[in-house]
Backbone:
């Protein structure tokens, strides 16, 4: 969608509407880079809807400006990894899992055994590194000091009004206000005409974009997540 808007010569500026609690780390990073790169060609403003937390915020800091509602749920700067453990269930029915591995940590996160102290230390170090990346990305995107971002980067959710005070968003408003700011950044003071991208219509595309799909799959696989569980 960003590429289409960049190629459309009648579009002077772009508003990215974000209404998401986040999700997997990789896609959040990809969206952030895509938005940041688009900024080099046309002004991109992010409009935060009901929820723009964790990975939603990560993507948003790629925008030139961020507009949120007073009650927008944002923040949740943190990383989480979850893995189901069915060891008790297997023991109950007398089922054993035979594991052959090359690499001491290869089965870290396996649902068929309890995590060892080494597993936990390894995973915690991995999450700490990713968390630090999140903090530094927010600090860089919002021109904030890293140490200031760390003060509220403990996974807490933040409402839009407070987010403005902390420097996470630039102003309070909805989509129309975001469009006006975007057009002003493009050097035009006229009232913006908003052209929306069509939403997916196929059943598969709608299911892939369902709000709970990431949250549901997170319970059944071991992944790093920029996600707020609201």
Residues:
């Amino acid at each position: 969608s960003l590429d289409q808007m960049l190629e459309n010569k009648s579009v002077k500026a772009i508003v990215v509407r974000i209404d998401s609690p986040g999700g997997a780390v990789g896609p959040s990073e990809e969206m952030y880079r895509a938005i940041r790169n688009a900024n080099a060609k046309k002004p991109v403003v992010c409009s935060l809807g009901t929820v723009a937390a964790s990975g939603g915020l990560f993507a948003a800091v790629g925008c030139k400006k961020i507009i949120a509602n007073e009650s927008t749920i944002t923040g949740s700067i943190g990383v989480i990894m979850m893995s189901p453990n069915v060891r008790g269930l297997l023991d109950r029915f007398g089922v054993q899992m035979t594991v052959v591995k090359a690499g001491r940590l290869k089965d870290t996160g396996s649902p068929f055994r309890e995590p060892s102290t080494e597993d936990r230390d390894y995973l915690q170090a991995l999450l700490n590194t990713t968390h630090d990346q999140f903090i530094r990305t927010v600090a860089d995107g919002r021109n904030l000091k890293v140490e200031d971002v760390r003060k509220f980067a403990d996974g807490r959710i933040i409402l839009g009004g407070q987010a403005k005070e902390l420097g996470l968003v630039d102003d309070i408003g909805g989509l129309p206000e975001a469009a006006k700011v975007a057009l002003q950044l493009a050097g035009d003071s006229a009232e913006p005409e908003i052209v929306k991208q069509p939403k997916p219509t196929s059943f598969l595309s709608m299911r892939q974009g369902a709000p709970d799909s990431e949250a549901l799959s997170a319970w059944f696989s071991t992944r790093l997540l920029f996600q707020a569980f609201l």
